[in-house]
Amino acid sequence: MAADRSCGSCSMCCKLMGISELDKAPGVWCPNFKRGGGCAIYHDRPTECRTFECEWLREPRWPDDWRPDRSKFVMFTEEGGKRLKIVVDEGAPGAWLSEPYYSRLKRMSQKVHEGQRLIICIGQRRIVVFPETDIDLGVLLDSDKIISGYDDAGVPYARVLSQNEAHEAR
To answer: What is the pTM of this model?
Structure first.
């Protein structure tokens, strides 16, 4: 966590993130969240909640308008920092497309050439962001594996592996 940052009144992770230990689905408010009071089980909260840090909280480079309760999305990294996942509030599905967010996300997507990926999640819908285009894969299962990159002609691609392909890739 950045030294000068705290969650404060932001609680978007309590809504947008799934919490398996509580059997809480993504996109719905946690039953332990109390508006104006935060987490009712804060001292006994699940490990998933204790260890989660969104990018805004973790990195001081993000301005205050990127705080999840203001931007309407939560950003975090997966796969050892190789994938930036942006979980958007379904009540504001176009929030990531507005400025100042979209242009910065497009600049960040240039790291695809270094093996990184930027994925937008709006409910079960997945969009892979490239510098030159966004590829909407539609509604997917959490277990679906996305592959993306550039083909031999330099054209960006993103697709979902079939169950057989995903099994073979393991």
So the answer is: 0.90
